[in-house]
Design goal:
It contains eleven helices and two strands; from the N terminus they run ααββααααααααα. By secondary structure, it is mainly alpha-helical. The protein binds fe (ii) ion (2 copies).
C-alpha cells in the first residue's frame, strides 16, 4: 500500500501538468500495487461526453446540411481518436481505476484523490506573528513589506485577482526548497528528516489554492504575462537564496505567509460587507477541503487562510531548524 501511495504521489506532477482544474484530460498515470506497476487510462469518458454533446447540439438547433456534415466529421474524428487512444491504452496495459465518492458517484478529479483531501484546521491562530529580532529576521521582514507595496498599488482591493496572482508565486518556494533538499539528500546519501515531503506538499497545497481561485477569477492576458515574468524572476532568485541561506529563505516565506493571511482576512471582510459576492464554492474546493455541498466563497477563503497560517508556522519553524543546523546547501 505504501508503494501504491508513493507512486501515485510521485506521478502527481505528471497528472497535474495536463489536468489543471482537475478534470480528466488524457494523461496516463502510474499506479502500482502488490509490487507490480500498471498504468491507468483517464480520458475515455470526457470524449464520449463531447460526442454526446455534439450530437445533442445537432438535433436541437436544426442546422443546415453542411453544418451537420461538418459536425459528423468532428464527431467521428473524436470517436476515432478515442479508439486510437484505447488501442494505445490496451497495448501499454493502461486502465483507469474506478474511484467513487461515498455517495457512489464517480470521483471527478485526477489532480488529487479522495485520500488526499482533508478538513482544514480552523482553530489555528491566524494572528500569530514572528517578531523580527535578528538581522536576518529584520531583513526578511523588510523585504516582504517592500514587496507588498507594488502589490497593493497594482491590485488595491481586488482580492480575488490578487489571491490568484499571489498563489502563482506562493507555490514556488516549497517546490524549490523540496527540490534542493532532495538533491542534497542524493548527494550526501542521507535522509531529509521529512522536510522534502513537507515542502513539496506545501507547494501542492498552494497549487490547489490556485486551481480553486481560477474557478472564480479568470486572468486577463496581461496578468498571464505578469505571472510569466514574476515566476521567471522569483524562481531564480529564490533558488539562489535557498542555496545560500535556507534560514533566510524560509523566514521570507514565513513573512509572505503572514501577508497572505492578511490578504485573505481583508478578502473575508469584503465578502462580509457585500463588496465581493459570496458565490457558491467551486466543486474542486468542496471535494478538496471536504466542504458541505452548499459551501460558499467565504468558506473557501476561510479554509485557504487556515492553510496559509499552517504554512507560516512551518516556514518560521524551518528557519529556526536550519539556523540550528548552522549549515548551508552550498557548503554541502
Ligand atoms: Fe496559498
Ligand atoms: Fe501559503
Amino acid at each position: 500500500m505504501n508503494r501504491l501511495w508513493l507512486l501515485i504521489r510521485a506521478s502527481s506532477a505528471l497528472r497535474s501538468s495536463a489536468i489543471d482544474g482537475g478534470r480528466n484530460s488524457g494523461v496516463p498515470i502510474l499506479l502500482a500495487g502488490g509490487g507490480a506497476c500498471r498504468e491507468i487510462h483517464l480520458w475515455s469518458s470526457p470524449m464520449a461526453s463531447m460526442t454526446e454533446w455534439r450530437q445533442n447540439m445537432t438535433s436541437e438547433s436544426g442546422p443546415d446540411k453542411a453544418a451537420v456534415v461538418e459536425r459528423e466529421k468532428d464527431s467521428s474524428a473524436v470517436e476515432k481518436k478515442t479508439e486510437t487512444e484505447e488501442e494505445v491504452s490496451s497495448y501499454w496495459g493502461i486502465r483507469r481505476p474506478t474511484i467513487s465518492k461515498k455517495d457512489g458517484s464517480e470521483w471527478p478529479w485526477n489532480c488529487f484523490m479522495p485520500w488526499e483531501t482533508y478538513q482544514a484546521d480552523l482553530s489555528i491562530d491566524v494572528t500569530k506573528h514572528h517578531v523580527p529580532k535578528t538581522f536576518i529576521d529584520k531583513f526578511a521582514y523588510r523585504t516582504v513589506k517592500l514587496l507588498r507595496v507594488p502589490t497593493d498599488i497594482f491590485f488595491q482591493r481586488r482580492y480575488g485577482c490578487r489571491a490568484m496572482m499571489l498563489e502563482t508565486v506562493a507555490a514556488v518556494p516549497g517546490m524549490v526548497g523540496g527540490m534542493l533538499l532532495h538533491l542534497r539528500s542524493l548527494r550526501k546519501f542521507e535522509q531529509s528528516g521529512g522536510w522534502i515531503k513537507a515542502l513539496l506538499e506545501e507547494a501542492e497545497n498552494e497549487r490547489m489554492h490556485l486551481m480553486t481561485m481560477i474557478e472564480l477569477v479568470k486572468p486577463k492576458w496581461y496578468e498571464r504575462l505578469l505571472v510569466l515574468a514574476v515566476q521567471g524572476v522569483f524562481f531564480n532568485c529564490y533558488l539562489v537564496l535557498y542555496m545560500i541561506s535556507p534560514k533566510l529563505a524560509h523566514r521570507i516565506v514565513g513573512y509572505l505567509e503572514e501577508e497572505a493571511i492578511h490578504s485573505y482576512t481583508e478578502f473575508l471582510k469584503d465578502i462580509d460587507s457585500g463588496a465581493i459576492e459570496n458565490v457558491p464554492a467551486p466543486a474542486i474546493a468542496i471535494d478538496y477541503w471536504r466542504l458541505p455541498k452548499d459551501a460558499t466563497l467565504k468558506d473557501v477563503v476561510t479554509v485557504i487562510r487556515a492553510d496559509e497560517a499552517h504554512h507560516r508556522d512551518v516556514n518560521h519553524f524551518a528557519s529556526i531548524h536550519f539556523q540550528q543546523q548552522k549549515t548551508t546547501l552550498i557548503e554541502h
